[in-house]
C-alpha cells in the first residue's frame, strides 16, 4: 500500500516536558488510524507536527513523500483538519460560514450545498452558528475540513464533550466517508469505542511513546484473548485463603463486597473446571458474568491505570 504519512523518530519537548519521545508511524492511503490515549499522552502534539503547526525537535515527517519545508502550499491543499475547539463568527449562518471557507479554495457554492447534505445540516443552513448545538457545531467543523476533498483528514478529539447521540452522528458521517472515498484519517481520541468503531488500525500512546499498535483483533489477541469472569457467591462468610490461595486459578477476591474476579484464557475448557472447583469446596454461584478483555484492560495492563484516569 502507498504511504501517505510517514513519521520517523520524532521527538518534541516543551521546556521540561517531553511531549513526544521517538515516535515512528506509517499511515497508508485510505487507512483510518486512531491515536488512543489519555489526556496529556502526546496525541495533540504529534498531530500538530503532522499538520505542520509544530516542528519536531528531532526526526522527520513526510506527507505524500514530501517534507513540510518548501512544500507548505502544496501540502496544505491535501489536508483537512478539525481541532478540539474552533471558534466561528456567531452571526454568520451555516451556509455563510461554509461559503467563507470555500472561498479560500475557490470552490463554488454547490460544494457548500453538498457538504451541508453530507454533515446533515441542510435544514440548518440559515441558522446562525451561535444557535447551533455542540454536536451541530462539530459537524460544521467536520464539513469545513471536508470542503476541499482532502487526501488526509486530521481530527483531534472531535467528539469530546458531546452526548452519545451527537457522538454517533459524527461517527456515521465518518463511516460514510470511509466507504465512499480514499481519504486517509488520523483520529485522536480517549474513547475506546470510538477507536473500535471507526478505525482500521489503533495506536495506543502514553507519555509521548507508543505502547502498542495494531488492528483491534491483533491488540486483543496480543492480550492473550483473555476473558474476565466476575462472580458473587451465595455464602457470605468465606475464608479468603480458600480463593486467593488457590494455585490453579488466579482469583481476585474482595471479602467486603463479596465479589470475585478470575481471568481465563480458554473459556470453554477452564470455566467448567473453575465451576467444578467451586462445587468441590461447597461454594455456590449467586451471579456470574463473562466478558472479553477490552482495550481499557490492555491499557491498564500496560500502564497500571485506566484510560480515563
What is the beta-strand fraction? 25-35%
Q: Please indicate the count of domains.
A: 2
Output the CATH topology of the largest domain.
Answer: Rossmann fold
Shape: elongated
Identify low-pLDDT runs.
none
Instruction: State the helical fraction.
Output: 25-40%
What can be said about the biggest beta sheet? 6 strands, mixed
Rg, Å, rounded: 24 Å
* CATH homologous superfamily identity of the largest domain: P-loop containing nucleotide triphosphate hydrolases
Order of helices and strands: EEEHEHEHHHEHEHEEHEHEEHEH
Q: Would you identify the CATH architecture of the largest domain?
A: 3-Layer(aba) Sandwich
| Number of H- or I-type helical stretches | 11
Average pLDDT over all residues:
90
Structure, explained:
This protein has a 6-stranded mixed sheet with strand order 5-6-7-3-8-9, with helices on both faces. The model has no long low-confidence stretch (mean pLDDT 90). The longest helix has 17 residues, at 164-180. It has 11 helices and 13 strands. It has 2 domains: 3-221, P-loop containing nucleotide triphosphate hydrolases (Rossmann fold), CATH 3.40.50.300; 226-292, Alpha-Beta Plaits (2-Layer Sandwich), CATH 3.30.70.1560. By secondary structure, it is α/β, with parallel strands linked by helices. Helices cover 34% and strands 28% of the residues.
Summarize this structure briefly.
The chain has 309 residues and is α/β, with parallel strands linked by helices.
Amino acid at each position: 500500500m502507498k504511504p501517505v504519512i510517514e513519521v520517523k523518530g520524532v521527538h518534541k519537548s516543551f521546556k521540561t516536558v517531553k511531549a513526544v519521545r521517538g515516535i515512528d508511524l506509517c499511515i497508508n492511503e485510505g487507512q483510518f488510524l486512531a491515536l488512543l490515549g489519555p489526556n496529556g499522552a502526546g496525541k495533540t502534539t504529534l498531530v500538530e507536527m503532522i499538520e505542520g503547526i509544530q516542528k519536531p525537535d528531532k526526526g522527520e515527517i513526510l506527507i505524500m513523500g514530501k517534507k513540510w519545508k518548501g512544500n507548505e502550499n502544496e501540502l496544505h491543499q491535501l489536508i483537512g483538519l478539525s481541532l478540539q475547539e474552533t471558534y466561528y463568527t456567531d452571526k454568520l449562518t451555516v451556509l455563510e460560514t461554509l461559503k467563507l471557507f470555500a472561498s479560500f479554495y475557490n470552490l463554488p457554492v454547490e460544494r457548500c450545498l453538498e457538504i451541508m447534505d453530507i454533515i446533515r445540516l441542510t435544514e440548518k443552513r440559515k441558522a446562525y452558528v451561535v444557535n447551533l448545538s455542540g454536536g451541530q457545531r462539530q459537524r460544521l467543523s467536520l464539513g469545513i475540513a471536508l470542503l476541499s476533498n482532502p487526501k488526509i483528514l486530521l481530527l483531534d478529539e472531535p467528539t469530546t464533550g458531546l452526548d452519545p447521540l451527537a457522538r454517533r452522528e459524527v461517527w456515521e458521517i465518518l463511516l460514510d466517508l470511509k466507504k465512499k472515498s480514499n481519504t486517509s484519517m488520523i483520529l485522536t481520541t480517549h474513547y475506546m469505542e470510538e477507536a473500535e468503531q471507526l478505525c482500521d488500525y489503533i495506536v495506543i500512546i502514553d507519555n509521548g511513546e507508543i505502547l502498542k499498535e495494531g488492528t483491534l483483533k491483533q491488540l486483543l489477541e496480543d492480550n492473550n484473548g483473555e476473558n474476565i469472569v466476575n462472580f458473587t457467591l451465595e455464602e457470605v462468610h468465606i475464608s479468603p485463603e480458600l480463593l486467593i490461595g488457590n494455585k490453579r486459578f488466579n482469583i481476585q477476591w474482595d471479602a467486603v463486597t463479596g465479589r470475585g474476579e478470575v481471568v481465563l484464557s480458554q473459556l470453554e475448557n477452564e470455566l467448567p473446571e473453575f465451576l467444578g472447583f467451586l462445587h468441590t469446596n461447597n461454594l455456590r454461584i449467586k451471579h456470574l458474568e463473562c466478558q472479553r478483555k477490552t482495550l481499557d484492560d490492555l491499557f491498564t495492563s500496560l500502564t497500571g491505570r485506566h484510560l480515563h484516569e
